[in-house]
Design goal:
- This protein has two domains: 53 residues, no CATH class; 51 residues, no CATH class.
- The protein is 59% helix and 12% strand.
- Strands 1-2 form a two-stranded antiparallel sheet.
- The longest helix is centred in the last third of the chain and has 19 residues.
- It is globular, with a radius of gyration of 17 Å.
- The two termini are 24 Å apart.
């Protein structure tokens, strides 16, 4: 498929998976802790998916983002248009990549 590469990272899941003694690796990595940097890399790998998305959807997504930046929100119509483009991709290209796919 021709298109743009999208990488989705479930930050809430990977941050929630950390044991208490391993919280805040970002700060430790900035301070030079190699183990913390490796922990971040592993988490990003485990809790992310990469897939191709149609350029038409990317353009529509960017247009909506610009609207959010200038007006603070998008319209229900705009959201419905994006959902109509995004949902088929989710079910076809993303859901099966999740560690716990969502049943249809």
């Amino acid at each position: 498929m021709e298109g743009d590469t999208v990488i989705l990272v479930d930050e809430a899941a990977y941050r929630g998976s950390r044991p208490p003694e391993k919280h805040s690796p970002e700060l430790r990595a900035i301070l030079g802790d190699a183990k913390a940097a490796k922990q971040i890399w592993r988490e990003r790998q485990e809790f992310s998916v990469t897939f191709q998305i149609d350029s038409k959807l990317t353009k529509r997504w960017l247009k909506a983002n610009k609207t959010i930046e200038t007006e603070g929100d998008i319209t229900k119509k705009c959201e419905a248009e994006i959902d109509a483009l995004l949902l088929p991709y989710f079910w076809r290209e993303v859901n099966h990549l999740l560690s716990n796919p969502i049943p249809k």
